[in-house]
Amino acid sequence: MNAPDLTKRPPRSVRVRLGGFVILARMLDKGRAEIAGISGEYHYNCPLDKHFLDFVGVDPAALRIQLSEGRGDGEILGWISENAAHKRSDLEIEQWSSYHDRRGPSSVEQREWFQALHREIGMLREDISTWADLLDLDDFCSFGGKA
Asked: Which letter does DSSP use for residue 21 in this model?
C-alpha cells in the first residue's frame, strides 16, 4: 500500500476534489496512513470525514478494508460509486462540495473552538473564515510554516 507519511507532511487539502467530492482525498490519505501506522496527529473517520461518509452512505469500516487492500484513488472512487447507499448526481456533488468549501463554524461551541485555534496558529490572518481555511493553515503551520 502506498500510504503518505503524515508524521512528515499533511494529508491532501480538504479542498482537493476526487470525483467532484471535497474531503474524500484527505480522508483517504488519513485512512491509508492510519493503516500503515504513520498517521501522526491525523485520524480517519473524524467528524469531518463523517460529513462525506453520511452524504454518500458508506460505512467507514468497509471503506477501510478497501484501503487496506491497497486500492488507488480511482479504484476507491469506483467502489464508492458501486456501494454508496445514496447515489448522488453531479449537481448534488457540486452543491455539497461547494457548501463544504465555504462552511464555517455553525454553533457557539464550534465558533469558540475555531476562534481559539485561529488565535493560536494565525491570529493576524484575516482571511481565515471557513473550516477549509483553518485546516489548510493548521496543516501548513504544523509542518513548520509561518502564518
From this structure: B
